[in-house]
Amino acid sequence: MLIFTNRDMNGGTNESALGTSFKQGSERLGLAVVRRSGKRWSVSAADTDVDDADSKKALLPLFKGERPVLVYVHGNNNTPAKCFERCAKLEALYDVEVIGFSWPSEGYLPDGKLVPDVDPKEMDGNEDELSAVEGANRKESKIQSKIYRYHQAGLNGKHSADALARFLRMIGAARLDANKQPYTAAAHSLGAQFLQYTIDIPGAAESIATAQNVALLAPCVRAVGHREWLAKIRPNSQLFVTFNDGDSVLAGASIADNGLTGDTQLKLGTDPTTDRFKVPYLRYISCSNAKVGGGGHGYFVQDKMPKKMLNVFGRIFRSQRDLEAGEIDRKIYGIKGDEDGLTCYFNAPNQ
User: In this structure, how many other beta carbons lie within 10 angstroms of the beta carbon of residue 323?
Assistant: First the structure.
């Protein structure tokens, strides 16, 4: 797997080669080839300061290869090892070449040090940890540590936007140069907020427009006003937003963002609301009431995935349409969607 990163790299040969610190506002990128090595990961061919020629040399073999390409941006509290693990699982499930972007999402300060008042025993790498946040316990010390880390991760995304924009430009340039394999860009959870911060940087929207599909998976962004920034993402084929009203991680994120009353912090990945972005190339996909695994947040990589979910996500990640010409949603998704075709369902929605 090829992994790009804006983390500081230290020349190591395993997952610890990618550190927790980064340079705020910097476009600097590193990259490495990652392979599984027993229970750990082998990091090789590391380049700590990638220029355009370096990126093209690394990317062109993938875009000229035999499998479609999936560009993946992870969410909150993913260590480098967790990022590698997720990318490897995506490759195995969907038979794609995955290019991952590892960013400092564990919630450390930019210098790599712990945020003040965070319990040093808090575990790195648990992207589901916000499911523990509830209105009744949000002031408890252990829960506050999770909230502080999550908020710092969001700030780190804001201050990493220039690096992600440069990565998208590199991806777009390689895709156009190779002109063979298409790619889908997928951003999970807080990674979708990271993309939201990035889309207005010059060249970012134009670069992601080279993607065949763009998928926002359980996006941890505010549902209110999402139409305005989604309108800036126009892939070649389709734009997808997946949601699950039982997503306990996004419920915790809403509370962490002080969404204790009303819907001001309702997350897009929980409920897009009735104020949806109605354009022919956008599809909302409801995973509510479907088998979505523990927590209902990583349903696109769950074990023993229902065949219909596996098939639909496989199509999306392999840069195909979710519904081919002449197909009906009831056959592919298992249930009839909305009459206007804007929203499809894997199971009957709540009434």
Answer: 19
**Residues with Cβ within 8 Å of residue 48, at least 6 apart in sequence:** 9, 11, 30
Q: List phi, psi (to 5°) of 51.
A: -100, 180
Q: What is the pLDDT of residues 202-252, one digit of tens each?
A: 999 999 999 999 999 999 999 999 999 999 999 999 999 999 999 999 999
Residue with token string 């027993």: 38
Q: What is the pTM of this model?
A: 0.97
Cβ neighbourhood burial of 121 (10 Å; 0-12, 13-18, 19+): exposed
CB neighbour class for 198 (10 Å; exposed up to 12, middle 13-18, buried from 19): buried
Beta strands in 82-194 (DSSP E): 97-102, 183-188
Distance CA 311, CA 314 (A): 5
Closest CA to 267 of 301, 302, 296: 296
